[in-house]
Design a protein that fits this description.
four-stranded antiparallel β-sheet; Rossmann fold; six-stranded mixed β-sheet; 26% strand
Length: 245
Amino acid sequence: MDAAKMLTIEKLNVSYGAIHAVRDVSLEIKRGEIVTLIGANGAGKSSVIRSIMGLVKAKADEMTFISPRDDKPVSILGKPAEAHVKLGISLSPEGRKILPHLTVEENLNLGAYIRDDVKGIAEDIEYVYSLFPRLKERRRQKGSTLSGGEQQMLAVGRALMSRPDLLMLDEPSLGLAPILVDEVFGIIREINAQGRTILLVEQNAFAALKVAHKAYVLEVGSVSLSGTGAELLNNPKVRAAYLGG
């Protein structure tokens, strides 16, 4: 695995009015890794990922992204989400947020809105269909007609359409049947094996830690533990708190 840094965050803080949701969170993501943030509901996981995407205001000593496209460190703190997409960061948001009145293919094309390479966009749509064959079967259907699992597949596929170097997934297993959870995490492994770096926010700690190279535990907005996925999977405190003992 390439050990080059991709994202470095030092002392990230996010507040919503008087609520201090994220407190001095520091983390690092290297190229080729799957990094996961786990924690209870309200621990600040989504606030961290949304701040990286530029969707919420944040303060930090450092928030630096290094794209493998040019190896130049860029501060992304305070920049709008569109700038992050252009740098090579994309997000599949919690709740999927697909556009229900658009077809599957229209939703995928929307994910490529910053691109103008028509041939490349068509190739990437076929790539998404190779990952999620059911989306190809439903390519002309409106998003509102898809099952929850299919909508999640579409949300991940749409995020891939900007050809991100860092793909961020916010609660991809939320509300899915166990068999679909296994399928989604299998796809996450496959996407990573093809060279894409992934930051995963997930309440299903067991599934997340099984695929993660590195993991951080958030409690009340702060990092309480970090280590490899295997280390945290076998940590007694993590097992007691998040894995049912």
